[in-house]
Amino acid sequence: MEDKQYMEYIHTHAQKSAHAITLVWAFAVGGIICCIGQGFNDLFTFALPDWDKSKIGALVSMTMIFLGAFLTAIGVYDKIGIRAGGGSIVPITGFANSVVSPAMEFNKEGIVLGMMAKMFVIAGPIIVAGTVSSVISGIIYWFAGMVG
């Protein structure tokens, strides 16, 4: 099939995307997830007045990761992701979903060679990229401090 024929085939058979509504859903769901996180932050700040901001932030992160993992385990987060797209992936709950989903999928292959080996298939490259970029940033910051 030539390029022109292939492009015609794609245009006739591909589903049309509703970009505007997809963006609205992504924005709304991502915003709702962030509002829930802020709600937990406010709740924990009120309930635990002796805790500093870093401890409260860690508790909020753990809570949101748990919720993302739990909603993935019961099959709800994938339904949210179908509708919201990137709005469900960007917040920390999306990271939990990217770890739990492969673990559940490959669990039938056994704990070690299935779940443990495949758990970070999706999230692994993101973790590596974040770690490498933070090390590079730290080295640049360190050298900038030595010069300045």
Structural commentary:
By secondary structure, the protein is mainly α. The protein has a domain at 19-105. It contains eight helices and no strands. The protein has helices at residues 3-13, 19-47, 53-73, 76-84, 86-89, 92-105, 111-118, 123-147. Helix 2 (19-47) packs across helix 3 (53-73) and helix 6 (92-105) runs antiparallel to helix 7.
- List segments where confidence is low: pLDDT < 50 over at least 5 consecutive residues: none
Helix content: over 70%
Helix count from the secondary structure assignment: 8
SSE order in H/E notation?
HHHHHHHH
Question: Gap between N and C termini, in Å?
Answer: 61 Å
Instruction: Estimate what percentage of residues fall within beta strands.
Output: under 5%
How many strands in all? 0
What is the averaged pLDDT score? 85
Biggest sheet descriptor: none
Oligomer: single chain
The best one-word shape is extended
* Class computed from helices, strands and strand pairing: mainly alpha
- Calculate Rg over CA atoms: 21 Å
In short:
With 148 residues, the chain is an all-alpha fold. Helices cover 82% and strands 0% of the residues.
Please name the defining characteristics of this protein.
mainly alpha; 0% strand; 8 helices; 148 residues; single chain
